[in-house]
Design brief:
Layout lengths: L1 H21 L11 H16 L1 H4 L2 E5 L7 E8 L2 E6 L2 H14 L24 E5 L4 E4 L4 H4 L6 H13 L4 E4 L3 H11 L3 H5 L8 H5 L12 H20 L3 E5 L4 E2 L3 H4 L5 E3 L14 E3 L4 H18 L4 E3 L13 H16 L6 E5 L11 H8 L7 E5 L12 H4 L3 E5 L13 H13 L5 E6 L8 H12 L6 H13 L4 H11 L33 H17 L7 H32 L3 H22 L7 H10 L4 H14 L20 H22 L1
Parallel strand pairs: 1-3, 5-15, 6-7, 7-11, 11-12, 12-13, 13-14, 14-15
Antiparallel strand pairs: 2-3, 2-4, 8-10, 9-10
Helix pairs in contact: 2-4, 6-10, 12-13, 13-14, 16-17, 18-19, 19-20, 20-21, 21-22, 22-25, 23-24
Keywords: Hydrolase, Signal
Organism: Bactrocera latifrons
Protein name: Alpha-N-acetylglucosaminidase
């Protein structure tokens, strides 16, 4: 009998292994024509290196190749063939040759390369297949922290970068124009709708039900403009062969819905981050209520009519929100009805779910997680394990109970600045997650809340997601330094190795949220900490300075050099300020006022030095953020509204500082007009208090 039980258990485990590996995501119903993808990649190459140089690259998309693969082959002295299984794979192959053979660099927004091709192109015969079915990029919050004021010209460059990095799956969250139509059809008044929609810089959290109305109302012109923008973004992404997840109905609705539907099952959402009643506590419509399907089907039909479909949809019913009931039956029914509402419109619907709700949340027991995940057929849900580099959930959830998932590096919160990262963890844990016997991992992604910081971490993660084996990190960072600066310089290589061994060596569980003393509200209770030898940063900084002063940098690479020099100087001053603060507190508590005054002056000098340094590069400028916001406005009133949104997000984050400094920015303009005055006031008050 015991032997039979063992055999049955073994068979069950084997079956689970097979199920978890075979529960693949099938998005094959929608396919961009081969010719369209080839043309899109050719246009990308022209935008990147110019029309003349682009003639040396022959692009072909061959769907008979293994999925997610490219082949590079030199066919003539000055002609190279790049064949990809899809447009993204071909663009990835082009970037591989650009970086590793022509030694040219691109990043988030700098994708135009000055290139003089040699008569004889470097030889290359390469076949490369991605180890990931999906390379994913974006976080719902990125659309507010980084993309809020972008126009299509910003997106055009960024989509080119995405393709060259191998990104195959992304998000399209713009939806307010559709909801406005639906709310009007359902009988809501203009005031009721205006009270619901959050402002342009806060829409991510209104969409997830965390807040309502703050920063609004949003003008009709903005809704229309955003609709057109998303249509253009989607066309550009799909032309390259990317798949895009559209928004679906998660259950969050305006509070005024109870006026129209008094007998349906609505639950007030719990207060989020102490937001006042006016801006919090919207309603959650129970997915088992018949009204849920009516709204969900109408919304998804309009969404597909407006944007087309790739059979994948995202929604997050419980993002930093506690569900109404802590029982498995409720969780199972909730997930089932949400997915079922998608399936009623699209029988091939896949639900893309952020796994953030499970992270460090004791509400979500193993029983509740399992009930929620398994309410959806295996392979019809794709989970983003949002911060796998620090708090992986695939381990505690038994690989999400067989639902396919993507290993994601979150890394950044709020778009804050500050050098940090976990290169060793990213390098090794992707492989270890793939190698788990029962893994349901199908891809790798980057899910930063804000971009335009620590670029090396993201290039590393995306390249690592494509590759099967771990990188030699010494070699990877040497190549990164060579290509980024356009020279092979021992001191630049050494600087990056020192950074790798210090700021990018984090392996702990403490949260890194950009909360450095220099950018925090002053207090006597701050606790600055670092996990690395700060002298490594000082030495790296000195090495970069010595190179810049004595070496000719190619003109094309100067923007990268300028950015990094400002950034490492900013890091140097950030560390210095932390240490000054520690010394200040020692002087204050020991009542050594002479020393206190001396250190206080040095702190204000450091802030002035930081402002001066940041002002030398527009990448670190408040004015760029504010001007982009105001430029979206068509009237003085709209410009004022968008500027308020832009300023509030990076400071008070709420009507009364509800999430103060969460999205703070070490930018020129912020330092001189925000950080320095409040530190000066604090230091003065503390000195008066001590004397009293």
């Amino acid at each position: 009998m015991r032997l039979i039980i063992i055999l049955i258990t073994t068979i069950a485990l084997l079956f689970f292994c097979k199920c978890s590996r075979s529960a693949v995501i099938d998005l094959s119903d929608v396919e961009t024509p081969t010719g369209t993808q080839e043309s899109a990649v050719r246009d990308l190459i022209i935008r990147t290196i110019g029309e003349d140089a682009s003639k040396s690259f022959v692009i072909h998309v061959d769907k008979t190749m293994p999925s997610r693969s490219f082949q590079i082959k030199k066919i003539e002295a000055s002609t190279l063939s790049i064949v990809g299984s899809d447009g993204v794979a071909a663009a990835k192959g082009f970037h591989h040759y650009l970086k590793y053979y022509l030694h040219k660099h691109i990043d988030w927004t700098n994708t135009k390369v000055e290139l003089q091709l040699p008569t004889q192109l470097p030889n290359a015969t390469i076949f490369s297949k991605s180890a990931s079915n999906f390379i994913y990029y974006q976080n719902v919050c990125t659309w507010s922290y980084s993309f809020a004021w972008w126009t299509f010209s910003n997106w055009r460059r960024h989509i080119d970068w995405m393709a060259m990095m191998g990104v195959t799956l992304t998000l399209a969250p713009i939806q307010e124009h559709i909801w406005h139509e639906i709310y009007v059809e359902m009988g809501l008044t203009k005031d009721e709708i205006d009270d619901h929609f959050a402002g342009a810089a806060f829409q991510a959290w209104q969409r997830m039900g965390n807040i309502r109305g703050w920063g609004g109302p949003i003008p009709h012109s903005y809704r229309r403009m955003q609709k057109i923008l998303q249509q253009r973004i989607l066309k550009a992404e799909r032309d390259l062969g990317m798949r895009v997840a559209l928004s679906a109905f998660a259950g969050h609705v305006p509070v005024a819905m109870t006026r129209i539907f008094p007998n349906n099952t609505f639950t007030p959402v719990e207060r989020w981050n102490h937001f006042p009643d006016k801006y919090c506590c919207g309603l959650f419509l129970d997915p088992s209520d018949p009204l849920f399907n009516q709204i969900a089907v109408k919304f998804l039909n309009k969404t597909i009519e407006t944007y087309g479909s790739d059979n994948i949809y995202f929604c997050d019913p419980f993002n930093e929100i506690q569900p109404r009931f802590a029982n498995a039956e409720y969780m199972n029914a909730t997930a089932f009805h949400i997915h079922e509402s998608m399936r009623l419109v699209d029988n091939s619907a896949v639900w893309l779910l952020q796994g953030w709700m499970f992270v460090k949340n004791i509400f979500w027991t193993d029983e509740l997680i399992k009930a929620f995940l398994l309410a959806v057929p295996l392979g019809k849900m794709l989970v983003l394990d949002l911060q796998s580099e620090q708090f992986p959930q695939y381990e505690r959830t038994h690989s999400f109970h067989g639902q396919p998932f993507i290993w994601c590096m979150l890394h950044n919160f709020g778009g804050t600045l500050g050098m940090h990262g976990s290169v060793d963890i990213v390098n090794t844990q992707i492989r270890l997650a793939r190698d788990v016997v029962t893994t349901s991992m199908v891809g790798v992604g980057i899910t930063a809340e804000g971009i335009n910081q620590n670029y090396a971490m993201y290039e590393l993660a995306l390249e690592r997601g494509w590759m099967k084996d771990d990188f030699d990190l010494n070699n990877w960072f040497d190549v990164y330094a060579d290509v980024r600066y356009g020279i092979r310089e021992t001191r630049m290589r050494s600087a990056w190795q020192l950074l790798r061994q210090s700021v990018y060596s984090y392996k702990g569980l403490l949260k890194i949220r950009g909360k450095y003393s220099i950018a925090r509200r002053p207090s006597t209770n701050l606790s600055p900490w670092v996990w690395y030898n700060t002298s490594n940063v000082y030495i790296a900084w000195a090495q970069m300075i010595s190179v810049i002063g004595n070496t000719t940098i190619p003109l094309y690479n100067l923007p990268f050099v300028s950015h990094d020099l400002v950034d490492i100087t900013r890091q140097f001053l950030q560390i210095t300020f932390d240490q000054l603060y520690i010394n200040l507190m020692v002087a204050y508590t020991s009542k050594n006022m002479e020393k206190y005054v001396f250190i206080a002056d040095k702190m204000l000098e450091a802030l002035q030095d930081l402002e001066t340094t940041l002002a030398t590069n527009m990448d670190f400028s408040l004015s760029r953020w504010l001007e982009a916001a105001k430029n979206l406005g068509r009237t003085p009133v709209e410009k004022q509204l968008y500027e308020m949104n832009a300023r509030n997000q990076i400071t008070a984050w709420g009507p009364n500082g509800q999430i103060l400094d969460y999205a703070t920015k070490q930018w020129s303009g912020v330092v001189i007009d925000y950080y320095r005055p409040r530190w000066a006031l604090f230091l003065q008050m503390l000195q008066k208090k001590s004397r009293a």
